[in-house]
Specification:
The complex is a heterodimer of chains A (468) and B (226). Chain A has 22 helices and 7 strands. By secondary structure, chain A is mainly alpha-helical. Chain A has 3 domains: 116 residues, Orthogonal Bundle (Fumarate Reductase Iron-sulfur Protein, Chain B, domain 2), CATH 1.10.1060; 144 residues, no CATH class; 125 residues, Rossmann fold (3-Layer(aba) Sandwich). Chain A starts with 14 loop residues before the first helix and ends with a helix. In chain B, 32% of the residues are buried. The chains are: A mainly alpha (468), B mainly alpha (226).
Chain lengths: 468, 226
Amino acid sequence: MPEGTLCNKNPITTKEQLDALLADKTGKIYYEEMKHLEVDTEKLAETLQATCKSRIRTWLEICAHCGLCADSCFFYLANQKDPTQVPAYKIQSTLGEIVRKNGQVDNAHMRYCMDVAWGKCTCCNRCGTFCPYGIDMGVMFSYLRGLCFSQGFVPWELKIGSGMHRIFRAQMDVTPEDFVETCEWMCEEQQEEWPGLEIPVDKVGADILYTCNAREPKHYPEDIAEAAILFHIAGEDWTVPSEGWDQTSLTMFAGDWEGCRLQVEGIYRAIEKLKPKRVLGTECGHAHRATVIEGPYWLGREDGRPPVPYLHYTEWVAEALRTGKLKIDPAKRIKEPVTLQDSCNYIRNYGLKEVTREIMSYIVEPGYFVEMEPCKEYNFCCGGGGGLNGIGIYRQWRNIGFKVKRDQIKATGAKLVIAPCHNCWDAIRDMEEIYELGIRWSFLKPLLLKMVIVPEHLKPKEEAEEEE
Amino acid sequence: MYQFITGPLLWLTFIIFFGGLTFRVVWYIRGLDWKLDRVAYRTYPALGLKGALQSIIHWLIPYGSYGWRAKPLYTLVFFIFHAGLVVVPLFLAGHAVLLEERWGISWWPTISMALADTLTIGVMVTAVIILVRRLVLPEVRILTTFYDIFLILVSVAPFVSGFLVVHQVRDYTFWLYAHILSGELLLILIPFTKLFHVVGFFLSRGQIGMDFGIKRAWKSRKGFAW
């Protein structure tokens, strides 16, 4: 059986296909079919010829086999220094083999590649900063994911995720109508406490266009309410798009390059239609990577930048605090040891380390902020990045990998971890469930809401009168 | 024999060495693809140059990068090994004599014999350490192939033979020829093996530096810290 009914080389593009795949709970049939999926070696060779150029070929060839990357990888450290977890070994035994054999590999090899590319690497790119040649194995693993996806060897959840994006232009089945309704609902719910609160939809020419993570409307709609309240307090002229509102990209995790392009295209179309001065994304790392850092290239933008400045949420928060749009009540600042999780996607891979520290200087009482060791661009991945949080078959591997982040957090002595990234936030939550450190974790929005000074005219009437 | 291996054969060696490395450089740069690599090389030449230089310089200086500082012992061994490999063949007085005899170049700088000896011993000792490390540490052993060991032996052979020639252990002619031929073999192999990192290091580091300078660290005031 070369092509399975569920596991095959074609991406999901219709609701029927998606439902069929979802009905196969935990991907039982899907993975069974994968064992018999034929590798189209000719197509693989063609793809290599067209896309594997001097950078990756040189990386694979020049690797000195020095092993300096070993200690950079949290999987290696968490697995008692298992040599098969050395990044150079992982990439040489997978992509290296495919390139050396010019695509002449079998089903077993492709399944091995899938296990390594998704279960033993989160594409955090940390190894690349420790290699004397600057060989970035995270980049190569994400390339390998693309090869695997094109041959149908992709974890079940990510095949679904890619399909969601292709069908809904969101990582979950949230339609534009659902999204707008959620915004309206959140707005209504907050009216009593925040009279005049608005979530303007499709307003043309606003200062800020706000995009989010589909999990927010689907599972944590209060996050959208919090964003709205903070904009309200800061007096921002902002809006959300009814289409192109989800900036996440499970397609990027899946290696579905065409799907990646489609997703970002939708967002950029919203930007062109609504002509905002700037765009602002939510507290998510990979969404920023996909839409702002890699996205322009998927769409073939020669300047490598989005059509208008596209900020990560932390950039806006730092700016709002700096300019006084948001003012913090000094009495309400965090007065307990607190640490910060640096997201690989916008710290190591975008350079926002200074901005996040600036935020800490406003919201944490001096002396209480404790850095993890190592931190900033050298920080370890939370353990759940690159889509790993969502993949069932690698759950145990992920949980072992958590040990590095667990020990890093433990060493800070902090009981509160600020994690302005959905994946990090999830990973730390799951880590707490498994290892019971007794820590709390939070996005920035709820913390800011607790300590921001609310201007008198924005308070509900009665409350304002009571205070008088 | 001496005339041949230091004459036509040496010329052939140089042609292959420089020709091969030139091909490597051209092939690498031509193969960079802004869309596939997702780095807008042409749009931001200044950011790219700054990033590339930052990345190369920090890794050329001992303990100049976070990565080197993370492995202090290895870094020491690595730099002793490479310092000898680069400095001795280029600036040995014995080699400068040849330059003067053949091409009349008399201004070529040279190093003292004592320094040359120290550096050569440094190369041989660190090569042994690197070999032992390869076989002892599990995270390096799993990566090691015969090819890696072969390349170390090929790289060190001219130093061992050269050392024996200079110190006239015995059999001067044999070791002299062994030295010249192993040196030529090394130069010929460089473009065809991963020893091409003599230029490849600068290309690869330059590329990742451009990647971070233009794209992945451009929001940081100082770029990537390396």
